[in-house]
Amino acid sequence: MLFRGDITESLRTNRPFIEDILNGMYDWVRVIDRDHNVIYMNRAMSEGLGVHHLGKKCYEVLGRSEPCLNCTSRKSVFDGESQEKEEYIGDRSFSVMSSPLRNSAGEVIAAVEVLRETTQLKKLYHEMQDQNHKLKSEVEMARKLQTSLLPDSPDDPRLDFSMVYMPCESLGGDFVDIFYIDDSRLGVYIADVSGHGVQASLLTVFLRSTINKKLLSPAKALEELYYEFNQSKLDREMYISIFYSIIDLDAKTMLYSNAGLNVIPAVYGRHRFELLRLPGIPISNWLEKPEYKDGTINLSSGDRFFMYTDGILEIRNEANEQFGEDRLLEILLKSSSTPEQILRDIKESAFKFAGARSLERLQDDVTMALLELK
Prior knowledge:
Blueprint: H1 4-13, H2 19-23, E1 28-32, E2 38-41, H3 43-49, H4 58-61, H5 72-75, E3 83-89, E4 92-102, E5 108-117, H6 119-149, E6 159-166, E7 174-180, E8 185-193, H7 197-210, H8 218-231, E9 240-248, E10 253-259, E11 266-269, E12 272-275, E13 295-298, E14 304-308, H9 324-334, H10 339-354, E15 366-373
Antiparallel strand pairs: 1-2, 1-5, 3-4, 4-5, 6-15, 7-8, 8-9, 9-10, 10-13, 11-12, 11-14, 14-15
Helix pairs in contact: 6-7, 9-10
């Protein structure tokens, strides 16, 4: 077995191969014998500590009077296992990897410690944590603001209205609004904006604050919204798909227009089912002059108006099958429940279809609205 003198001689004999390499390292390297004596220290560590410290106890180098509680040598390095720990020297932090040093017979004769400074990395980590906490707080405030902009159901004996709004992230890119234009007319729209998160939520705020709620033509309101959007000079990848309708509750008629919503709203009742198809590009800066048209439909007491975005259709199960339009329509058309219960049934059926981890499988926002005329 080699003892301390043998180790020192071995290091001296192999200096061109070992010491020159170790002295070229940025990391600190030292060798400790079984009695906790420092028997080798590379140049980076000597210069970093300001003194060579050879012959001193390893813990004395750290300004301590006894072995560290998390001493790797006392654990299992001298039993042949490598150990890793974190160490502080003054106001600096280090990741320490301790490995057994064996002789030609395979006996562990010392421990080699490589200390890599992590002070700056830990500082950056804590700064990132602080920024992340701040960002989460700001996103939570934005989420509360966005949620507060969603409408309450009108307290009106002429209708029953319900909606489901489930963003796939903290901030959603879908939006629903319902509002009175006058005593008889009611404006209702559903929108799906590009992307998710903060950018998408800002577009929903832009939409709600910009759309002209006094115009009696949905097509003109969308055209005006299109030009307002272009004034903002937003990126070409940003856009808003929106279906906007104006319902005259007394005359029981509906005007509607579409700006690129890719799922088709429907009006249905006991003896009718009509899809409200109309072309129209999304609110964007893709064209200089968009063309939107007004459609019109007569309504009757008991008719229901259903709007949704494609998020509910795209919910997938374990076999990667989509919930799809057929399953949605089957629930919608067979139920005679209240709008609130029908939407609840659709949501529960979709999540049951997706399985136990359905909320984690939301690839898009899930938004639906159902209005029934009395």
